[in-house]
Write a structure and sequence with these properties.
397 residues; alpha/beta; globular; binds 4'-deoxy-4'-aminopyridoxal-5'-phosphate; AON_synthase_class-II; Aminotrans_II_pyridoxalP_BS; biotin biosynthesis; Aminotransferase_I/II_large
Length: 397
């Protein structure tokens, strides 16, 4: 027995977790779950990923209810056993058609779609090239793939090209977010695709924050970059943001779908997506097709919001490509306090701290919605003005 260990105390392992939590508390890095009411506690929502305001749309609610009435509340099994209903097959097809892809497969989350896609497309003896600020689900997918992983600087196409050119591996996969989830900037997709094509690799693009917001009618960033349907492009997406539902998908060539059905562990060993989420997502696609101007509204609101932050001298993006607007404050405590001030002034905003962002780059993450109105923008201006006053920053730095 190692000195100092008490094998009879079940609290031993928990003491370590407690100590770690206390140290995160001291560093301003504790996270708390805050249950909200259906109306966001009366605050305006500038924090969710409900970019088109569809998550409470009566058409989606009816789509979800109708799907539950016909197929039940759960899918009852893996997609390979009983968990593929006619709604799964329909959404597979509809998402492929919407994004201009040959084939599609719905997963039960975007996280699992990324895990499935990367691990099915790359394995031991292959190379994966991944942007350094890609989403955590991509980071984990790269690790799980057992491929060699080259992390490249953010949006650095030359570094991607070097990694591909200098590789010993025959097969390579380049992975990127389309719209990066905290800074809201766009990946250089056309340039990445040129490099990927020149070096015989595959390009996987996570459209999570681009679908429904970027591109013609919200068809996504790959579509906007002219990459729809390219055989060496694979898309992943989530149904939980602009589509107001829940779930994810992988889109690409038929060979990609076949690989996922045969080897995609996060699909094979996971229960298929629940019918209400499918019904809601299908209804959301109907809404997008009927109202193709919605994505431009969300983008416009994002520009208005970043204009307000910039006008107050806050560090933000000049020209947001999608609906994500970061406001950088630096230290975690400053970001937490700023989010509290915004809530006190009526606006719920996101607050991101390390490890979600680099050290010294803690920020507020404002998200736009197509349904944000003038009164909401006034509330935001007042809230951010109060943040500026509290930090002692000049209004016109
Ligand atoms: N990719 C990106 C870029 C994301 O931001 C997210 C969600 N935060 C996901 C994937 C995961 O999607 P889901 O929430 O559907 O699991």
């Amino acid at each position: 027995m190692t000195l100092g260990r008490d094998p009879r105390s079940p609290a031993g392992p928990l003491a370590r977790l407690r100590a770690a939590a206390e140290s995160r508390e001291r560093a301003g890095l504790r996270r708390r779950l805050r249950p909200r009411t259906g109306d966001h506690d009366g605050l305006i929502d500038l924090a969710s990923n409900d970019y088109l305001g569809l998550s409470r749309d009566p058409r989606l609610i009816e789509g979800a209810a109708a799907a539950a009435r016909e197929y039940g509340t759960g899918s009852t099994g893996s997609r390979l056993v009983t968990g593929t209903t006619a709604l799964h097959a329909e959404l597979d097809r509809r998402l492929a058609a919407f994004t201009g892809s040959a084939a599609g497969l719905v997963f039960s989350s975007g996280f699992l779609a990324n895990l499935g896609a990367v691990t099915a497309l790359a394995g031991s003896g292959d190379l994966v090239v991944s942007d350094q600020v890609n989403h955590a689900s991509i980071v984990d997918a790269c690790r799980l793939s057992r491929a060699r992983v080259a992390i490249v600087p953010h949006r650095d196409v030359a570094a991607v090209e070097r990694a591909l050119a200098e590789r010993d591996e025959e097969h390579a996969l380049v992975v990127t977010d389309a719209v990066f989830s905290v800074d809201g900037d766009l990946a250089p997709l056309a340039e990445l695709h040129r490099v990927v094509r020149a070096h015989g690799a595959l390009l996987m693009i996570d459209e999570a924050h681009a679908l429904g917001v970027v591109g013609d009618g919200g068809r996504g960033a790959a579509h906007a970059a002219g990459l729809a349907g390219e055989p060496d492009v694979v898309l992943t997406l989530t149904l939980s943001k602009s589509l107001g539902a829940q779930g994810g998908a992988v889109l690409g060539a038929p060979e990609v779908a076949d690989a996922l059905v045969d080897t995609g562990r996060s699909m094979i060993f996971d229960t298929g997506l629940n019918p209400p989420a499918l019904g809601a997502a299908l209804a959301a696609l109907d809404v997008l097709e009927a109202e193709p101007g919605l994505p431009a509204l969300a983008r416009d609101r994002a520009r208005r919001m970043s204009g307000i932050a910039a006008g107050l001298g806050l560090e933000t993006t000049e020209d947001p490509a999608a609906a994500v607007v970061p406001v950088v404050l630096g230290e975690p405590e400053a970001a937490v306090r700023a989010a509290e001030i915004c809530a006190e002034h009526g606006a719920r905003v996101g607050c991101f701290r390390p490890p979600s962002v680099p050290k010294g780059r803690a920020c507020l993450r404002l998200t736009a919605r197509a349904t944000v109105g003038e009164a909401d923008l006034t509330t935001l201006r007042e809230a951010l003005s109060a943040v500026v006053r509290s930090t002692g920053r000049s209004l016109h730095t």
